[in-house]
Amino acid sequence: MRRALCLAYAATVASALPRPRRATTLHALRVRGGGPVDGALEKVRDLTTTPAGSVAFVSIYMTMELCGIPSVPLAAAAGVAYPTKVALAVVLASSVTAACVAYYVGRTRLRPRLDKRISNDRRLRAVAAAVRDEGFAILLLLRMVPMPPAINYLYGAMAPKFPAYFFSTLLGYLPGTVGTVLAAKGATVALPRWCYVAGGLGVLALVGTTVATGRRVSRQLDAYERRV
């Protein structure tokens, strides 16, 4: 089972390799190696778009998230392996589902251990107090700040109401998912120049929003930290 997951993961990441029209390292390999390179890439893409390949992709994606490993490379791979709308749906559904599973595990099986950790960490106590008092609003802001997936277990121990947790996760994950998938798609498909300009401006706006949100969250948590 482990070997199969490793092979599926390698196949998914390999599917993200672009097929540029201009001279690149991959192009040089094609010239030297001929058809086998192109054929291998096509087989990888065919694998990831089959039902079994899609199930393997989602399983690996969720496993990485639940193990606390950032899954950005897989999100980018999805942008190449699938049509844009399908890639967005697959990545967002996988991320949110994994977050909800971690929430449940943190609220049940890991609750005693996580409660102890939260009680021993002043910053985490501040986060727990903010989540308890502000619910959806603070969760949405926290979702817009990059954090390791393992934070979802701690959110479960903090026990916000599930609807607030679910919708804040869905909305908070959306900008990063769209940006990653579209960036991967744009790197492999020839687009008009204005698309790249608009994409660059969008990335700058996303980074600016993330920084501003991070500062706002930090100020709010500082206020809660002084109380706990």
UniProtKB/TrEMBL annotation:
Its main location: membrane. It is found in: Cell membrane. The keyword S-adenosyl-L-methionine does not apply. Residues 69-182 form the VTT domain. InterPro entries: TMEM64, VTT_dom. It comes from the Eukaryota. It is a multi-pass membrane protein. The chain crosses the membrane at residues 86-105, 165-184, 196-214. Keywords: Cell membrane, Membrane, Transmembrane, Transmembrane helix. One of its GO terms (cellular component) is plasma membrane. This is VTT domain-containing protein. It comes from Pelagomonas calceolata.
